[in-house]
Design brief:
Blueprint: H1 4-24, E1 34-37, E2 42-47, H2 49-57, E3 61-65, E4 69-73, E5 76-89, E6 95-99, E7 103-108, E8 111-123, E9 127-134, E10 137-144, E11 149-151, E12 155-165, H3 167-177, E13 187-196
Antiparallel strand pairs: 1-5, 2-5, 2-13, 3-7, 4-5, 5-6, 6-8, 7-8, 8-9, 9-10, 10-12, 11-12, 12-13
Amino acid sequence: MHSPFFRALTVGLLAGAVTAPQATAAPAQGLLPSLPIAGGSTFDFCLTDASASALSTAGIAMDAIAPSTVVSDQGHRCVRTVLAGGKINSDLSGLTATAKDGGFAFHHGSHRAEFTAIAAKITPDRTGTITVTHHKQRIDILTTKLTGLKLSLTKITAKNVPMNLTPAGANALAKEFTTSPLPAGHELFAGNSTAQVLHLTPSTGQ
């Protein structure tokens, strides 16, 4: 018959054998690093035919807030912004980006609604959101399901990406013009851009 000491030693060794794999297990892998998006590319917010018609009927015009500029793309009035930079997930599941100073505005007579500090976010469910500053408050103004957007590890291309007005965006316009010329969910803009993705080299970090 084994002594109490021998039984305790045996139990301890067996317990150690069971728990050892947990103690030496490798840590969980972290998220893949993101890659920087180069600044300097342009992004055009172009009015659709329907939204341009609705604004015209309401007597509302769209213009740019400097240094953003007004351009024309195939007959469509657009506000051109310049990308300050951003980041894209290495697995292409999403990105964030910000524009340089400027933005777009809508005006009618003495009434003017300005939207500045434009930023974009794409989430893994392939939903895009454009946020802006309006009356010193941050609001979601546009959403998109990203039709026409192509993501790769070398560049990002947007071609006529439908950008729909959010309820917050429609409310912002309604407060300035008594009623919103466009309902929430309406495609306000088609978005166009091409941006380069940068790759850091291990030797220089650039």
